[in-house]
């Protein structure tokens, strides 16, 4: 179901919306699919603290503490960022 929603968002061009992309990342994390969450995170043109937090929480959930720490270290100290870390 979640992948269908993601596919529909992609077809409609909604992935560029920060709220939708963050929600999709969070959905993948809650489904224990952190690799897909990371792939989407890498494609998101704008990221805010919620976007970063969603992915970091996913790594924490799967006990990948070092990866979460590394990602936290790359997190910009502003309200949003462009492009990959």
Automatic annotation (TrEMBL):
Q: List where this protein forms a coiled coil.
A: none
Family annotation (Pfam families): PPR
Judging by the UniProt lineage, the source's domain of life is: Eukaryota
What keywords were assigned to this record?
Repeat
KW Isomerase (keyword) present: no
Which PANTHER family would you find in this protein's record? PENTATRICOPEPTIDE REPEAT-CONTAINING PROTEIN (PTHR47926)
Which NCBIfam families does this one have? PPR
Q: What is this protein called?
A: Pentatricopeptide repeat-containing protein
Question: Upper lineage ranks?
Answer: Eukaryota, Viridiplantae, Streptophyta, Embryophyta, Tracheophyta
């Amino acid at each position: 179901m979640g992948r269908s929603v993601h596919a529909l968002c992609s077809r409609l061009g909604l992935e560029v919306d920060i709220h939708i992309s963050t929600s999709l990342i969070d959905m993948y994390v809650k489904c224990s699919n952190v690799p897909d969450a990371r792939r989407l995170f890498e494609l998101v043109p704008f990221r805010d603290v919620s976007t970063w937090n969603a992915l970091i929480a996913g790594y924490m959930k799967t006990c990948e503490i070092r990866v979460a720490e590394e990602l936290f270290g790359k997190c910009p100290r502003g309200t949003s960022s462009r492009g990959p870390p």
